[in-house]
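Field log, afternoon session.

UNIT: design team B
ACTIVITY: writing a sequence onto a fixed backbone
BACKBONE:
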C-alpha cells in the first residue's frame, strides 16, 4: 500500500480514502488539498515522482499542471480589475493599442477571459520553440482577425488565453504575468506555485508521465466531437517531452506552463472561494471575486465541442467554478461552501481512451466532508 503523508481533518476522511484508491489504481505520484474558509483541512501527498517508482513524492514536489495554470492567470486579471487598473468591460485596445487591428476594436477584456474573443488559435507559431518568443506571439495576435464576432460565441483559447491576458497585464503593470503573479499573489500567500520556474527548483519537479500505451511524443489535441471528428488546427503541437523540458520550465506561457502541487493550487484559488482572502491575507474585495462565478457565456464551445458555461476567467459547473489541465490536474471552488479542492498528479490519462474521474471523485468526497 502506498504511504500517504500530510494533513486530513477527521471530517474529510473520505478525501483520503479517494486519494488512497487513486494511488492504488491509476496514479504514480499525486497530491490533493482542500481549503475551507481559506484554511487547509486536507493536504495529502503520496506515491512517486518518477516512472521507476524510485523517488518518493515529497511535500514540496512540484509538477506541470498544464491548463490548470489558467486559473492563476485569470486571478491576476481579477486582482488588477479589483484595484481599478483594468476595466473588464473596456476594449483590450485601451491597454494594448495595436490590438485594435483587423476588426478587434470591439474585443473586450471580459471576452478574452471568457474564451469568447474569437482568437482560439495562434496563426504564426508552428514549433514549441516559437511559444517562447513573447513579443513575436503577441504581435501576431494583435494582427489576427477574430474567427467570429467577439462575445457571440465561445471557443476554448487553449494557448492564446495566457498571451492575451498576459500582454494586458504587462501593458498595465510593466511586468510579465509570471512576475506579477509571484510578487502580488504567490508571494503574499506563501504559495509554492510558479509560472516560469527557476533553475533552483528543478530538483523538485516530478516529470509528467504519458498515459499508458503512449510515449513522450503524446500530444495535446482538441477533443473529438460527438461524431468522432476533430476541429482542424494547424498550430503548435505540444508533446509531453516539451512540457518536461528545461526550456518549458524557464518560459512564461501563462495559459499552460505553471508548476505547483495541490496545496499551492488550492491555497491560491481559495482566495476566490473565500471572498478575497486566504490564510489571513486579503488579495481582493468580496465584490472583486464575483466575476469568477458570474456566467458570461452558455452554449456549445466551438473548440471543446461540448456545452460549456464560461465566467470571467473560469468554467462554471453548478455552484462551482475552476478548470483542469491536460492529463488530469484539476481545481474547483465553491463560493457558497467557501471551499476549494485541488488535485495534482504526474501520471497523465488520455480521456479519449480511458475515463478519468480521479479529481472529480476527490471533489465529491470533499463535499461529503462538508455535510
Amino acid at each position: 500500500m502506498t504511504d500517504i503523508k500530510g494533513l486530513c481533518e477527521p471530517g474529510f476522511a473520505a478525501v483520503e480514502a479517494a486519494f488512497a484508491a487513486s494511488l492504488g489504481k491509476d496514479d504514480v505520484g499525486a497530491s490533493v488539498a482542500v481549503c475551507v474558509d481559506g484554511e487547509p483541512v486536507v493536504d495529502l501527498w503520496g506515491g512517486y515522482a518518477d516512472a521507476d517508482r524510485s523517488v518518493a513524492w515529497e511535500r514540496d514536489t512540484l509538477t506541470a499542471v498544464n491548463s490548470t495554470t489558467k486559473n492563476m492567470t485569470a486571478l491576476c486579471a481579477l486582482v488588477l480589475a479589483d484595484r481599478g487598473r483594468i476595466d473588464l468591460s473596456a476594449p483590450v485596445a485601451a491597454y494594448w493599442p495595436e490590438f485594435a487591428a483587423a476588426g478587434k476594436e470591439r474585443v473586450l477584456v471580459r471576452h478574452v477571459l471568457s474564451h469568447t474573443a474569437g482568437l482560439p488559435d495562434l496563426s504564426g507559431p508552428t514549433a514549441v520553440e516559437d511559444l517562447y518568443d513573447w513579443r513575436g506571439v503577441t504581435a501576431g495576435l494583435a494582427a489576427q482577425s477574430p474567427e467570429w464576432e467577439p462575445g457571440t460565441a465561445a471557443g476554448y483559447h487553449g494557448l492564446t488565453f495566457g498571451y492575451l491576458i498576459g500582454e494586458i497585464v504587462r501593458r498595465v503593470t510593466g511586468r510579465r504575468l509570471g512576475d506579477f503573479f509571484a510578487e502580488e499573489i504567490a508571494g503574499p500567500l506563501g504559495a509554492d506555485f510558479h509560472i516560469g520556474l527557476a533553475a533552483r527548483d528543478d530538483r523538485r519537479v516530478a516529470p509528467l508521465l504519458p498515459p499508458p500505451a503512449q510515449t513522450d511524443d503524446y500530444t495535446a489535441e482538441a477533443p473529438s466531437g460527438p461524431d468522432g471528428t476533430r476541429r482542424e488546427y494547424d498550430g503548435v503541437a505540444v508533446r509531453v517531452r516539451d512540457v518536461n523540458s528545461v526550456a518549458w520550465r524557464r518560459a512564461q506561457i501563462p495559459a499552460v506552463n505553471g508548476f505547483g502541487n495541490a496545496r499551492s493550487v488550492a491555497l491560491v484559488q481559495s482566495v476566490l472561494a473565500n471572498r478575497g482572502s486566504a490564510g489571513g491575507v486579503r488579495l481582493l474585495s468580496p465584490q472583486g471575486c464575483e466575476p469568477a462565478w458570474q456566467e458570461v457565456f452558455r452554449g456549445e464551445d466551438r473548440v471543446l465541442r461540448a456545452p460549456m458555461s464560461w465566467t470571467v476567467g473560469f468554467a462554471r459547473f453548478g455552484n462551482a467554478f475552476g478548470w483542469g489541465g491536460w492529463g488530469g490536474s484539476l481545481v474547483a471552488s465553491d463560493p457558497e461552501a467557501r471551499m476549494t479542492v485541488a488535485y495534482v498528479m504526474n501520471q497523465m490519462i488520455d480521456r479519449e481512451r480511458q475515463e478519468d474521474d480521479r479529481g472529480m471523485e476527490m471533489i465529491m468526497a470533499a463535499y461529503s466532508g462538508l455535510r
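LOG NOTE: The first helix runs from residue 13 to 25.
NEXT ACTIVITY: expression trials, pending approval
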